[in-house]
């Protein structure tokens, strides 16, 4: 999985007054949980643009001004209700030998037979929640939809991997091919339905 580095300053004062002063200076107050101690730090708001304003997922290296580096993932983010400025970010420290839970973007591959016949691909999930070691988690989970006909569905079990555990029920649908007014019969479909003559 891709990693971003954020240069930050550890902060000792965490009261409302200190937090307000940070925000007025264009800094975002942040917290890292999950380690031996709770760590407070701050970084310029612009430093988070490639982490927050993207559909991709990343692990993060928090490079503190005291020389310490902390590996983490974004846990929660608060925005101002009017200006949408970032008010606060929570991170969780991660370790190479401890599984983490993340939502990984899903991407289709191939060209669905049902879509070629005029059907429409509908998504139920754009991200898949998985659990695994940080080094094993992919940047994106891909699913081949080539053989999907009209009415067919792609399930989370179709994109299972030994590298991670999918945290959705097995019958969870990722995407499906729905019929449309422009849909025509799939010429390669088998059985009586494909052979039946068209009604006048």
UniProtKB/TrEMBL annotation:
MF annotations from Gene Ontology: 5S rRNA binding; structural constituent of ribosome
Origin superkingdom: Bacteria
GO cellular component terms given for this protein: cytosolic large ribosomal subunit
InterPro entries: Rbsml_bL25/Gln-tRNA_synth_N (IPR020056), Ribosomal_bL25/Gln-tRNA_synth (IPR011035), Ribosomal_bL25_b-dom (IPR020057), Ribosomal_bL25_C (IPR037121), Ribosomal_bL25_long (IPR001021), Ribosomal_L25_dom (IPR029751), Ribosomal_uL5_bac-type (IPR020930)
Family: Belongs to the bacterial ribosomal protein bL25 family. CTC subfamily.
GO biological process, one term: translation
Gene name in the database record: rplY
Domain Large ribosomal subunit protein bL25 beta: start-end pairs: 100-180
Protein role: This is one of the proteins that binds to the 5S RNA in the ribosome where it forms part of the central protuberance.
Protein name (database record): Large ribosomal subunit protein bL25
Pfam families: Ribosomal_L25p, Ribosomal_TL5_C
HAMAP family hit by this protein: Ribosomal_bL25_CTC
UniProt subunit comment: Part of the 50S ribosomal subunit; part of the 5S rRNA/L5/L18/L25 subcomplex. Contacts the 5S rRNA. Binds to the 5S rRNA independently of L5 and L18.
Domain Large ribosomal subunit protein bL25 L25: 6-91
Assigned keywords, A-Z: Ribonucleoprotein, Ribosomal protein, RNA-binding, rRNA-binding
């Amino acid at each position: 999985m891709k990693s971003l580095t954020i240069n930050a300053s550890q902060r000792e004062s965490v009261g409302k007054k200190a937090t307000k002063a940070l925000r007025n200076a264009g800094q975002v107050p942040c917290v890292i949980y999950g380690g031996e101690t709770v760590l407070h730090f701050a970084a310029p708001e612009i430093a988070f643009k490639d982490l927050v304003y993207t559909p991709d997922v990343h692990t993060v290296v928090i490079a503190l001004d005291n020389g310490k580096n902390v590996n983490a993932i974004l846990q929660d983010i608060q925005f101002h209700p009017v200006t949408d400025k970032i008010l606060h970010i929570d991170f969780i420290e991660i370790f190479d030998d401890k599984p983490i839970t993340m939502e990984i973007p899903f991407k289709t591959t191939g060209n669905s037979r049902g879509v070629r016949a005029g059907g429409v691909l509908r998504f139920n999930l754009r991200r898949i929640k998985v659990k695994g070691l940080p080094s094993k988690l992919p940047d994106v989970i891909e699913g081949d939809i080539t053989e999907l006909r009209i009415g067919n569905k792609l399930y989370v079990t179709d994109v299972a991997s030994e590298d991670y555990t999918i945290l959705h029920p097995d019958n969870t649908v990722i995407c499906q091919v729905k019929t449309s007014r422009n849909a025509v019969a799939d010429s390669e479909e088998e059985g009586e339905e494909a052979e039946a003559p068209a009604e006048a």
